[in-house]
Write a structure and sequence with these properties.
With 326 residues, the chain is of the alpha/beta class. It has a single domain (2-321), classed as TIM Barrel, CATH 3.20.20. The chain is built from eleven helices and ten strands. A ten-stranded mixed beta sheet has the order 7-6-5-4-3-2-1-8-9-10. Helix 1 runs parallel beside helix 2 (62-72).
Amino acid sequence: MISLALVTTTACNLSCKHCLRGDATAQQLPFDLVEKAVTGAKRFGLDNIHLTGGEPFLYEALPEVLKLAQDNGVSVTFSTNGLLIEKYVKLICTYKKTIRLLNISLESNSRDIHEKIRGNGTFEQVLAAFDICRSKKVPFGILTCLNKLNYQDPINVVRFAKKHKARQIFFSTALPCTNSRDNDVILSEQQRSKLFEELIRLSRVSSMDLLRLFYVPVYIAETIFASNNIIMCNNQSLRVVTLDVDGSVHFCCFMTQYDLASDVEKCLRIVSLRDVSFYDGLRLFAETIHRLLLSRIEDINDQAIDKKSADLNSCFYCYKKLGIQV
């Protein structure tokens, strides 16, 4: 089974300290290319469409995407800041059986820390979104992007998630984009390694709470993995295929930045679905991933690499490997 990760729009109603998209001109993913991708992916076992942005509730073709998913029997998940859920609650309820999960961003159980990252007034708006989801029985989880401002005590966010009846909590980390560098929020490799160990413990403890009396399921994003695994993420196992806002099959949704040098962008944007079938796009994507994995095997095997200091974290490794400044 595979999932399509759609960068639906670069438009957003916030300007967060760690945002990958930066000051990108507002764009919308053409719906006809979404249809083409869904139709093509079905033969490969499409089971989910993940909507991200920008803010996916600002995507003009959102109702059409939800209907497309419903008609094709696939589920939809969101990465959203949650601030527009009240406005779109009728649409959400209409497609409640199709929406598997709303992943709502919450950076901390502390109002001050959350709002330092996402802006004044956003904490109460997120809590209001939780209330709406509970009252309408819409499944939601919490997405927390750990960085220098909020990484020291993730268990408090897990307890907060349990208190507010989230289905799960998903931890990622700030990536080395322009915003994260300018705002000095990127964790070092040592901090990420220590954090990874702590989150593994949290994940194990939560998995033993079968009745969900004290914990919610804890999931750890590839952005935090500090390992030397060859296949580092769902993207590289071909379980996730990213379609960027311009309709190109992209290397990874965590690398869709728009302030990169043109030669780097050319490397990341593999092919446009305007020009090829989904089958051909998937084949070219697989060839690109294959080359990266062969190169990674060589890097891990290279005795010149100091295993104790080499940053083999999945996302940070790819950023360096593909020429993105870290």
